[in-house]
Amino acid sequence: MTQIDGDRTHEPDETTSLESVLDEFVDVRAVQEHGWSSLSAAADFWRVPMAGAHLTPRVKELVLVAMHASVTTLNVDAVERHVRRALKAGATAGEVIDVLITIVAVANHALYFSIPILEQELTVAGDRNVAEAVASPDYEAAKEAFIASRGFWNSDRDSLARLIPDYYRALDAVSTASWKDGPLSAKERAIVCIGIDSTVNHNYEPGLRRHIRNALAHGATGGELLEVLQLSGMIGLESYIVGTRALFPRSPR
C-alpha cells in the first residue's frame, strides 16, 4: 500500500507555479501587461498550498483530480491537467482510477436528502408499499461489510436499502470497490473524500466530519488535513485560468 509521506519541504518548481500552468495555453506576457498585479496575487494563492510541507505533490494532485472530477464540478480541462500532473508526480494509473471510482457515490448525497422526503410524502398519501417495505435478509451482512471496509456507517442508507434494494446493492458495491482492493491507502482515500466534501460546490458536513474522523484514525495529521482544505479553496483560481485563456489564448505547446 502506498502511504502519504510525512512533513517535508518542497523547493519551488513547476509543481508550485501557476505561471507554468498558464504557459501551456495562455500568453503570460499579455496577462502581465494587462493584469497589473493580479498575476502575482493569483500565483501566490496557487503556490502556498502547492508548496505546503505536509502532503506530497503526488497526493495533492490526486486530491485535485478528485475535486475537479467530482460530479459537483466536472471541470474537464482541470481533470486532464491534474491527471497529467499526478502521473508526473509519481501516481500510477491505478491510483488515479482508485480516485475516480471513490468519488462516484458523491452523487448519492442528494438521495440521502430526497428519499426521506419522498418516503414521508408517500406515507401521508397512504402508499402501503412504503409502509410495508423492509430490508432484505442480506442487509445486515452488507452493512457489516460496509463498516469493515469503510470504517463507518451512514444511517441515511437504511431508507435506500428498504425502498430501492437493487439500487442500494449497486450503490454499496461501487461505494466499497476501491476500499476493498484499491491501490491507495485508507488514509489517502479518506483524504480524497475530505477533498470532495469540502469544495465550494459541495459543502457536505456529515460526510466531511465522518471522513475527517476516519482520516485521523488512519494516522492523518492536522497539518495534512489543513492542506486539503487549502487545496479546496485554491480551485477558485479556475475562473482566472479559464478567463485569461479566453482573453489571451495561444496554441498549446
Can you put this structure into words, describing what you see?
By secondary structure, the chain is mostly helical. The protein has a single domain (14-247), classed as AhpD-like (Up-down Bundle), CATH 1.20.1290. The chain is built from 15 helices and two strands. It has helices at residues 18-22, 28-34, 38-50, 57-69, 76-88, 93-102, 109-124, 128-132, 139-150, 157-163, 165-181, 186-196, 205-217, 222-234, 238-247, and strands at residues 198-199, 202-203. Strands 1-2 form a two-stranded antiparallel ribbon. A hairpin with a 2-residue loop joins β1 and β2 (202-203). α6 packs antiparallel against α11 (165-181). It is elongated and about 70 Å long. The two termini are 36 Å apart. Mean pLDDT is 90; it is low at 1-12.
**Please, how many helices?**
15
Helix amount, in percent? 55-70%
Strand order of the largest sheet: 1-2
Q: For this structure, what is the CATH class?
A: Mainly Alpha
CATH superfamily: AhpD-like
Specify the CATH architecture: Up-down Bundle
User: Would you give the CATH topology?
Assistant: AhpD-like
| Terminal CA distance | 36 Å
Average residue-wise pLDDT: 90
Low-confidence stretches: 1-12
The largest β sheet comes out as:
2 strands, antiparallel
Cα radius of gyration in angstroms? 21 Å
Order of helices and strands: HHHHHHHHHHHHEEHHH
The tally of strands reads: 2
| The number of domains | 1
Global outline: elongated
